[in-house]
Amino acid sequence: MKAIIIGAGMGGLSAGIALRRIGWEVRVYEKVREIRPVGAAISVWSNGVKCLNYLGLERQVAALGGMMEDMAYIDGLSGETMCQFSLDPLVKQAGQRPYPVARAELQDMLMVEFGREDVTLGAKLVGLEDDGTTVTAHFEDGSSDTADLLIGADGAHSVVRPYVLGHESTRRYAGYVNWNGLVAIDESIAPARQWTTFVGEGKRVSMMPVAGGRFYFFFDVPLPEGLAADRAATRETLRAAFAGWADPVQRLIDLIEPERTNRVEIFDIEPFHTWTRGRVALLGDAAHNTTPDIGQGGCAAFEDSVALAIALQTNTLGIEDALKRYEKKRTTRAAGLVLKARRRCEVTHALDPAATAAWYDELRHEDGSRIMHGILSSIEGNVLD
Ligand code: FAD
């Protein structure tokens, strides 16, 4: 059996690894010539790590993962600690430590495991045909390839999605801009083994450790969509957005490298439940584009890959039947994560200021159990539970 995968991101490469493991021949096609992940790092929560473990990457992902032992929320303006607690109960309940990892390293790990020689770069999908027995992908340069199955892992702006759905989808602006990057750990800003988040005014400044003595940092600021962005002015923009905030936030702004700091406007797509059409299936952001507010978009892509391989391996009534079972297994869970992230986004970013004020108040009375329960409710119900 042969599969064509469109897109060499986290979704496409993990699906490629998963299908190889069940004996499929796989070819991945990627439109860009050089893969540059959009963000600096990503938190792979226990559900995502379990999927990587299942794919044989336990040792590799552990080597990339930062040691995130504690968690704290700090009042961004006063610098006062609102709550601070150990994540150990979460790890014990989930059965796996979560790992914040640098994206470029995660991408490289997946690429090495899948095999660079089986990825065609510079191949942009422009059309596809399913004749009921095979599916053929057509690329911009006039080339084509035919297989038993095609997976659209082509991200938020998927071209496979409208083929599957029969219509275009609208992306919904979530109301905020995220700046992210990596800096060397500086314990005058935050403890090395802690996920530290400063909150106030509907904004967030967050740091978590990744391997190599680095913090993954991000700044979230509620802003209108489509503002002009000047990378060289990133430090000044952040200084203005966080004027009056506590010293550690100012020190972090001093440390960032504007040329290597990403600016991303955050969007999602209303969940939908049609992920397959004939021999074609969607996976990852193509199927469920979420805001990053619960850090589950990429984890859900890993879950999709494992679920797809299990469906293809365990069902013998043909590919279309296996894809329908994959769809049935995945859409409700993924939709739940998208909608949960959207609700968190609204509270975190003061889209409803009263709810945000109540959350800040809750944080001052938090012993960790409510927050860990919230995180665990996203982790649990995953494909390997
Ligand atoms: P992508 O990574 O977008 O890959 C799609 C690939 O398809 C791209 O390489 C693209 O070039 C290629 N492609 C597109 N069109 C074509 C075409 N026509 N032909 C060929 N190739 C094509 N998730 C988490 O789990 N934890 C986090 O902490 C987290 N933090 C995030 C922070 C931010 C700021 C953002 C924006 C997202 C975050 N996410 C997080 C979500 C995560 O980044 C995505 O869910 C994940 O990258 C999706 O992977 P993917 O492979 O589905 O899509």
UniProtKB/TrEMBL annotation:
Alphabetized InterPro entries for the sequence: FAD-bd (IPR002938), FAD-dep_Monooxygenase_BioMet (IPR050493), FAD/NAD-bd_sf (IPR036188), HpxO (IPR047712)
Catalysed conversion reaction: urate + NADH + O2 + H(+) = 5-hydroxyisourate + NAD(+) + H2O
Record field: transmembrane: none
Gene3D superfamilies linked to this entry: FAD/NAD(P)-binding domain (3.50.50.60)
Domain spans labelled FAD-binding: 2-338
Assigned EC number: 1.14.13.113
Cofactor entry: FAD
GO BP annotations listed: purine nucleobase metabolic process; urate catabolic process
Record pathway: Purine metabolism; urate degradation
Keywords from the UniProt entry: FAD, Flavoprotein, Monooxygenase, NAD, Oxidoreductase, Purine metabolism
A Pfam family: FAD_binding_3
Top-level taxon of the source organism: Bacteria
Record GO terms (molecular function): FAD binding; FAD-dependent urate hydroxylase activity; urate oxidase activity
PANTHER family (UniProt xref): MONOOXYGENASE, PUTATIVE (AFU_ORTHOLOGUE AFUA_6G14510)-RELATED
NCBIfam families attached to this UniProt entry: urate_HpxO
Protein family according to the UniProt entry: Belongs to the FAD-dependent urate hydroxylase family.
Record's protein name: FAD-dependent urate hydroxylase
Organism this protein belongs to: Paenirhodobacter enshiensis
